[in-house]
Design a protein that fits this description.
The structure holds 2 protein chains of 2 kinds. By secondary structure, chain A is α/β, with parallel strands linked by helices. Chain A has helices at about 35-65, 70-80, 85-95, 100-115, 120-125, 130-145, 165-170, 190-200, 210, 235-260, 285-290, 315-325, 340-345, 360-370, 370-380, 400-420, 435-440, 440-445, 455-465, 480-495, 515-520, 535-540, 545-555, 560-575; strands spanning about 5, 10, 15-20, 155-160, 175-180, 200-205, 220-225, 230, 275-280, 295-300, 330-335, 390-395, 430-435, 450-455, 500-505, 525-530. Chain B is α+β, with helices and mostly antiparallel strands. Chain B has a single domain (about 5-90), classed as Histidine-containing Protein, Chain: A (2-Layer Sandwich). Chain B has 3 helices and 4 strands, in the order βαββαβα. Classes of the chains: A alpha/beta, B alpha+beta.
Amino acid sequence: MEKIFRGIPVSPGIVWGEALVYDPGVVNIPRFKIKNPKEELKRVQSAIDLTKEELLLLYNKTLENFGKQQADIFNVHLMVLEDETLLVELKRRIYEELINAESILFDVTQKYIKDLKTTGNPFIEERKADIVDVIDRIIRNLLKQKRPDLENIKKPCILLSKDLPPSETARLHPDKIRAIVLERGSTTSHVAILARSLKIPTIVGASDIFDSYTAPIKGAAVDAVEGTLYINPTSNTIKRLRLKKRQLSRKIHQYEKTIVSHPSQTKDGKNISVMANIELPNEVDDNVKYLSAGIGLYRTEYLFLNKMEPPTEEEQYLEYSYTAKAMSPLPVVLRTIDIGGDKLASYASFFKEQNPQLGCRAVRFCLAHKDFFKTQLRAMLRSTTPGNIKIMFPMISSVEELREVKKILHEVMEDLVQKKIPFKRDVEIGIMIEIPSAVLIADELAKECNFFSIGTNDLIQYSLAVDRNNENIAHLYEPAHPAILKMLKMTISSAIHAKIPCSICGEMASDPLFTELLIGLGLDSFSMSSISIPQIRALIPSIDYEEAKVFAEKILQYPTAKEIRSMLKERIRSKYKNIVSTV
Amino acid sequence: MNTKQLEKELRVVNTLGIHARPAAMIVRAMQKYDAHIYLIYNGNRRNAKSVLQILSLGAPKDAEIIAIADGEDAQSALQELEEIFDSGFGEE
């Protein structure tokens, strides 16, 4: 029987076929009395030995394919296997309580995880996933339940799982994994980031798949454009998806034709630059260089996730300068790390802060960990010589904060000068406008930096007090809210007044519903994931800037999001139907 | 055993605190010694030869830790421990 589940699409595409249910967490751990503790101890020892072999194999493979930094994680996993207190506790409890090793291992893991929950240090808390990962391997070997090995999948398949442990995420292969659907995860989780960069269609946050579907799963169909998973899809569903897929590829072909024949400017000749958001240096390919006017947002978080330790200055320098060179002479905007909040908590829903979104993240985290911040700034500054680099700071909420990060940047510059390390002294410094207070003082902020980039995702979330991952209120997350449009106008006007460029890099930038409106508000630079570029880029040549200004003025008069939305939709239907079909 | 218990105050100096790599470093170094070695932080006493226990200390930068050692080679164990802490585990 077909069953439909909905989640958040994080990497687009439409795929159907064989499904593989991958379940890294052992759901049911049996608990039973044992008679012979000596035998039980032998049983657990051989499970540990088996796990050791598995991990050594993984270490070598990962070392070969991904390098020492990614592989090092398995060294710590191996040390956990030899942990004397773990082994002593196991032995003691097997003899004293006469219960099976699986259930003791489970108890012990819970104890250590509980301790880690209270540390408040994201790099340490992140290790929770590693402890769970390695002990799960032992338990599986005890139960003789092999983890499906993602490395050795024979036939390409659609991967369905609750979550993916860190040791597996690093080794996903796009040739074998055709699509991914997870019960957990968010748009910014590690898996989502990786899937986008590998172009694997992916849906996260599809809750309760396994609890509510107990029949055998044979096939699946994934519509990662709208975020729908069909388990055991009917032939009708597949027919419909096949049609949709064909329409999509026809559209993309049409976009490409427009892009080839029209420059990136409005009908009346105003230049609009469309840039790309990237997560990983290897996303930069000929296509990105051909389609975009540069990298408008390079999120540096990925470099820091799932590593034994943060990358060194040299490692960061290599990544940044690689991208700079690859894109040169086009600009690359490097954003300093926006860690904390949801990002590090992706595997660890236990973040200590009660309210991480309003907590110690982004520049706040950096200002609290200055050495760490300076290392990143040094690497960024050094990469200004091989390419056209700009540096951007996220989550600026006050002029004081901007001054403080600039002061640190200057300290790093002085140090580089003294050590005679080359960099561009006049590198452009910009800030993300994503906190309502920054909008209200945008005129003051504009005097002290070289450019703005509006991060609409956070701006909407903070302005409307809506956590978009909370499904009870997600419907209140509304980019078309008149308050949001007024804030955009305010920010853009302050930038124009101060004669500094202003760009937009949130999801709103890639939604064709808003393109004409944003251009009408005076925006001339958009940054979005490269997948979204063709449509927006193809839409721009049919927009008239003068008309867009009038249209934007009119839209700003409406008091409700509902009216604004229907106006925007009507506009698409009447003027851009040939280009935008999905309204 | 007649040896006296020795103790030493240590401070975490690296930016990231005792995360996985430093924990592994401490354990590897301490496993060489016969002495029982414990780290005390935030009211918790942890075995310095267990990577799980050291990790679950959750000690951030500037954490003040008391190390205690008991055994023939306690003195040299604590000395090496201090060097490791002072070096910031080879990190910034």
